[in-house]
Amino acid sequence: MKIFLDTADTAVIEKHFSSGLIDGITTNPTLIMKSGRNPEDVYQELIDLGIPDISMEVVGNREQMLWEGRRLANKFGKEATIKVPCTPDGLYVCRLLAKSLVKVNVTLIFDEAQAILAAKAGAKYVSPFVGRLDDNSITGLDLIKRISSIYNKQNVFETEILSASIRYVNSVSQSFANGAHIVTMPPTVFEKMYNHVLTDKGLELFDKDWKEVQAHT
Ligand code: E4P
């Protein structure tokens, strides 16, 4: 049961990584663009922080993605997970990278058929986009359950389900309940995972009562 943060904001990542609860980072071209930084500076900073698994997305045609994927894997080593889209070119690249033992995250998964192909191509992770399915009136969390059921029945152990495009805390819990191995989430969702109104209320009462104890001992 692993938690990844879905961001390229290294300051926020550093803050939350110190909790010891973060297992990896996923980035994508949009998140890198939002950071306003050179992607490789971001990746290097994350490696220097000790992040063990960083998804680095490649774009372009199959030759470009393969060349870039190999270059990034060589440059960044075991921490690098190369992220490719679930397209014929992306899965072609996935198969070749996986053969040379490079970890691959197949992204933009919206149907179990795509997860089947990605597993056959040797993906280390498949990333179903829960929130974007919900945005289109399809229950994203059901897809996690269906992929998990297929992988379990077919004894697929090498490919892990990385639940992505997460908007709510409840989707994190339900993703794990439905069989995800990993959930990647924006830092704001991770921060909310700690919270419960009854925890706040209970703590307030305990603090008050403890002051009473101290006042009378
Ligand atoms: C997955 O790895 C993607 O980076 C991400 O989860 C996409 O989320 P979004 O739909 O919120 O952009």
**Taking Cα atoms only, what radius of gyration do you get, to the nearest Å?**
20 Å
Helix content: 40-55%
- SS element count, helices: 11
Averaged pLDDT: 98
What would you say this structure looks like, in words?
It contains 11 helices and 8 strands. It has helices at about 10-15, 30-35, 40-50, 60-75, 90-100, 110-120, 130-135, 140-155, 170-175, 185-195, 195-215; strands at about 1-5, 25, 55, 80-85, 105-110, 125-130, 160-165, 180-185. The longest helix has 19 residues, at about 195-215. The radius of gyration is 20 Å and the shape is globular. The chain binds erythose-4-phosphate. Erythose-4-phosphate binds near residues 107, 129, 131 and 165.
Write the layout of secondary structure elements.
Layout lengths: L1 E5 L3 H8 L6 E3 L2 H7 L3 H11 L4 E4 L4 H15 L3 E6 L2 H12 L3 E7 L2 H9 L4 E4 L1 H6 L4 H14 L6 E4 L5 H9 L4 E4 L1 H7 L3 H19 L2
Parallel strand pairs: 1-2, 1-8, 2-3, 3-4, 4-5, 5-6, 6-7, 7-8
Helix pairs in contact: 1-3, 4-5
Bound molecules: erythose-4-phosphate.
The site of erythose-4-phosphate has 11 residues, from helix 7.
